[in-house]
Amino acid sequence: MKRSLSVTLFFLFVLCGMLYAQVPKDVVYHDALEFNLIGKIMDGTSNPYHRIDTLKYKGFTKSENDQVRSTSGLAIVFKTNSPAIYLRASYGYKNYGVNTMGIALRGYDLYIKDKGQWLWASSACPALNKENNPFLLLSGMDKEEKECLLYLPLYSELYNLEIGVMPGSDISTAESPFRGRVGIFGSSYTQGISAGRPGMAYPAQFTRHTGIQLLSLGCSGNCKMQPYFADALCDADVDAFIFDAFSNPNAEMIAERLFPFIEKIQKAHPGKPLIFQQTIYRERRNFNHEVESTESAKQEMAEKLMAEAVKKYKDVYFVRPCATSADHETSVDGIHPSDEGYRLWAESIEKPILKILGKYGIK
Q1: Which residues of the chain have pLDDT under 50?
Q2: Cα 142–148–149 angle (5° rounding)?
Q3: Are 319 and 352 in contact (CB under 8 A)?
Q4: How is the chain split among helix, strand and coil, in percent rounded to 5?
């Protein structure tokens, strides 16, 4: 039995090696930054793939530094007629969490425009511990020019990314297909933890479906309306803000920080809508009375204070998302939604948020 298992494992390793050795030597690689990087909330970062320049903005913990340097919400838009697309990257921080697939944490998600709609084409992740090796994203295509939308990893830091095409193929930049600049600051939900691939985070789904560009700054476990996050958001070039601000802090923290946070952001962005989302129902509370108590307390505090906030402050709004199906089968780990849960979330906020943005000419 042991010998049989050893032989099986040997051939599996050989097969994996053969698959990754099949990248042709004549692939022509192009720096992804030659094309259009979209979804970025703040320009001018020392590393173009960082969402906040942590050399400029101080106060972040090590975990927060890792997360704001990750590429969640960022995408590359380009056109190519290559029959195959390859990727080659170099990473800084890499995440190997247990509640999210490697494709979402460290991999890439490709959509191609088909009859005016974004249609999923492929997703892939470099081999474990071989993240710097080139790998195939998609092959077998015809040689017609295609408009491509490539989502970057949800929870890893990129130093460099190259897009590879076959010799003689064309590849060029493309205009952003999305309108406006709406910043969205939030928790692991906004970052997309437990999504199956980068394009299934709810801000990405919302953007593809509505055409309104959400600039994501999800920060897993660390969206607590901290003053140093507000400092960065004050400098962001946006038309509006959406906040998933009540998922990480407890009730006491919400009571202490909400109004000062609103006032600081409003001072820097007068006349722009600030849309706050209630935190979603976490399935962990189904039978755990301690979790039920904590979750109920922060939801009740958010409801109470936002009822006051929408009256006290002009341009402040409150919406209630839903990421839970009728049968309560949309959770991965009792905290984070599955792809279906994130789809429900994006759909649940679409109408109220588009209505609010429309009042400000963001359509």
Answers
A1: 1-2, 5-21
A2: 150
A3: yes
A4: 35, 25, 40
